[in-house]
Amino acid sequence: MYDTDKWRKWAYRLGLVPCVMTLLFTFTRAAWLSLGLSVILMAIIFERRLLLFLVMFLGISFFIPAIHHRITDLFSPVYWIKSAQAGRIARWTEAFDKMSTNPLFGIGLGHYGGAVASLYHYSVYSDNYYAKTLGETGLVGLTLFIAMHIALMRDLFVRVKNASGRVKFRLIGGMTGLLAVLIHNSMENVFEYAPMALSYFLYASLFLVLGQAERERGMNHMLSI
Description:
By secondary structure, this protein is mainly α. It has one domain. The protein has ten helices and no strands. The protein has helices at about 5-25, 30-45, 50-60, 65-75, 75-85, 90-100, 115-120, 130-160, 165-185, 195-225. Helix 6 crosses helix 8. The longest helix has about 35 residues, at about 130-160. The protein is globular, with a radius of gyration of 20 Å. The relative contact order is 0.10.
């Protein structure tokens, strides 16, 4: 939607196919839900016409047997019981137990819920980056961490709102992806994979620069008029 070169447009369309296939057939429910929620939120805020495309895509995907099975499992009482006993829910609630020993500052970096903690048998893997942050750095650390991302999303929101035309669509797409990562962190330790964290902050910086450049271009245009 952003590029004007027809050959690059076709390259992007072809590249979209393996991206979608990878997302679907790794069978990662957390990734599906995160991206779905992110697209819905962004579509409601900025471009509601995207909701029709999303509904069609989800409808088609839902009837793929393996995907259908993964989604319907979420509505099974057995799944939630087992998860509370020894699954993700049990791991998330453990974060509060760890944090309760030092509510403000947690038990220290590397001592709960992450790869380092698991390697040295300090705790189980949390499958929730926010729970990990809460257990390790307490309420202070989690509050500061969330506040940082809220500020980043706020600045990106302003950039998107002030943009127009093809640049606006590019910024909407970028913010949708970044928001999906933040949602995904509530179900897995996404930021513990270094290339993922690097990509998140790199793209966030690039979109901020692009949005600011577009804003300054618009202001200069108004001044020239």
